[in-house]
Specification:
alpha+beta, OB fold (Dihydrolipoamide Acetyltransferase, E2P), globular, DUF4920 domain-containing protein
Length: about 180
């Protein structure tokens, strides 16, 4: 009886060791997929950003402007183009004039007829409540009509404005003034 138990114990031990090796081998065979963040130049941002809505991309540009009304918006520029960046946190004023590599999620603002009707309604309400003068009212009205004219001329039902939701950045160089 002792011999049967000993053989059974050795068999179980051997079987468990072999199955552990299979598990280890399976873990080692799995490949890790590295996803690279696409890089766009600021010159191609407006034309290619639509391909990356809701995804992270990298851009390189010079911090040309940091919004004074909260510091949560930045304008990145290069000789070829620009991009607006928004953040949940304030940007450090020391970034002004710096060239940075920025990672952000592409956002899209769609300007369509429903958007324009809402903006017209807001413009009329604002003017009737005295929050805007006649000149501001007419300028806004003209601006909205320009959007309509552009959509009609280009045969499109909306205009897309792209921006970036800030994720991270690193400084590339400091531009001296």
């Amino acid at each position: 009886m002792k011999k049967i138990l000993l053989v059974l114990a050795v068999g179980i031990f051997t079987f468990s060791c072999k199955s552990d090796k299979k598990v280890e081998a399976q873990v080692e065979e799995k490949t890790v997929e590295v996803i690279e963040t696409p890089m766009l130049t600021l010159g191609e941002f407006d034309t290619k950003a639509g391909e990356f809505i809701g995804e992270e991309i990298e851009v390189v540009g010079i911090v040309d402007h940091i919004c004074k009304h909260g510091g949560k918006k930045v304008l990145l520029v290069s000789d070829e183009g620009d991009a607006h960046v928004v953040s949940d946190e304030r940007f450090d004023e020391a970034l002004m004039g710096s060239e940075i590599k920025l990672v952000g999620v592409v956002l899209e603002e769609r300007i369509d007829e429903a958007y324009l009707l809402k903006m017209e309604e807001d413009n009329i309400k604002s003017h009737s409540e005295g929050a805007s003068n006649e000149e501001q009212f007419n300028a806004k009205k003209k601006h909205l009509q320009d959007y309509r004219d552009k959509m009609k001329k280009e045969g499109i039902d909306h205009i897309s404005n792209y921006s970036l939701q800030y994720v991270s950045h690193k400084e590339v160089a400091v531009i001296s003034e």
